[in-house]
Design brief:
Blueprint lengths: L1 H8 L6 H23 L2 H7 L17 H21 L3 H18 L6 H15 L3
Length: about 130
């Protein structure tokens, strides 16, 4: 029984489904980032906001100002393109993880469950060989 379990756990498998997940995830996130960049959402939600609902323990996370927030979203868009084409995959997924986590933690009033899912998937992609 142990031999069977050992053989099953250490058998190499194809990672093609993981590559497809990476491409689809990068595409969906790239479209989401483009929506923020094309609309006036960055200004409205992060720059011009007079009050923020901080997450407990994350009061220190502050918006970076207009230029800084646009830079964050632009770098996030480039990292999404990196995920799509597979260029510097681990670096791209790390940038997506930290960028999306930063945006997610800025204000709990803008909580979206799929933003939380983006953070989780980006973290998993950061440590998996896709």
């Amino acid at each position: 029984m142990i031999k069977t379990l050992s053989k099953r756990f250490f058998t190499q498998i194809d990672n093609t489904p993981l590559v497809y997940l990476r491409i689809v995830f990068g595409t969906v996130l790239f479209i989401e980032v483009l929506r923020f960049l094309q609309g006036s959402w960055i200004e409205k939600l992060y720059v011009d906001a007079t009050f923020r609902f901080s997450y407990l323990g994350f009061d220190w996370v502050e918006p970076l100002g207009a230029t800084g927030m646009y830079v964050v979203f632009f770098v996030l868009a480039l990292a999404c393109l990196g995920l799509i084409v597979g260029y510097r995959y681990h670096l791209s997924s790390a940038l997506v993880f930290f960028g999306m986590s930063y945006i997610f933690l800025l204000d709990r009033g803008y909580y979206l469950n799929h933003f939380y899912l983006y953070c989780l998937i980006a973290f998993l992609l950061m440590i998996l060989p896709a």
